[in-house]
Write a structure and sequence with these properties.
2 domains, 190 residues, 13 strands, tt1808, chain A
């Protein structure tokens, strides 16, 4: 189905997307079709989601993956690969989340510039956000941008570390678990 020719409001976009067969992100009145995911991105996202689900059990926080909408502003709505929220209103919503403490994006060549640039700039506007995690499964690099006491995001490059440390949810995940299944899957294909 064709995208609307005029700039949309967020409410217009949500109503329009509800009847679309594919997902779209929304930024400043424009809708952008989501591209299909890669196998290795799915493996890493699932590994992180499983670890967070187990770690957060019994807490007031929950992890959500890929198909959940995150409203970043009145003019921006994205589908992060994974996010964690501890907000009571978020935990009751069915459609749009607004207050994540953690957002994670698993990078690919086609999304890397957007995830590092415009998306990160938009996510930084969220007062609730404590950490922004970028994972490159091809390079096995892991970057955590953590909000400091001055409310600025500082890079904590965890590439090569033994474990991923997510301070906002007090999780330490061995890198071997984060990337579990990538080498085996790559070997099986080759």
């Amino acid at each position: 189905m064709a995208l609307p020719a005029h700039k949309q409001t967020l409410a217009d976009f949500l109503a329009w997307e509800e009847v679309q067969p594919e997902r779209h992100e929304f930024y400043r009145g424009d809708a952008f079709a989501m591209v299909g995911g890669r196998r290795i991105n799915g493996i890493v996202t699932l590994n992180l989601a499983a670890a967070l689900k187990a770690h957060l059990k019994g807490s007031a926080c929950r992890a959500f993956v890929e198909s959940m909408k995150l409203q970043v502003a009145d003019d921006a709505l994205f589908y992060p690969d994974l996010f964690v929220t501890c907000d009571a209103a978020d935990l009751r919503t069915e459609q749009v989340f607004r207050s994540p403490v953690l957002v994670a994006e698993v990078l690919s060549a086609s999304t890397q510039a957007f995830d590092r640039g415009l998306k990160f700039a938009a996510y930084r506007r969220l007062g609730s956000l404590r950490e922004y995690l970028l994972i490159d499964p091809d390079a096995r690099s892991v970057e955590v941008y953590r909000r400091n006491e001055r409310s600025l995001f500082e890079l904590h490059d965890q590439t090569g570390a033994d474990a991923l440390h997510l301070a906002c949810v007090d999780l330490r995940l061995p890198m071997a678990e984060l990337f579990d299944g990538l080498d085996a899957a790559d070997d099986a294909v080759g």
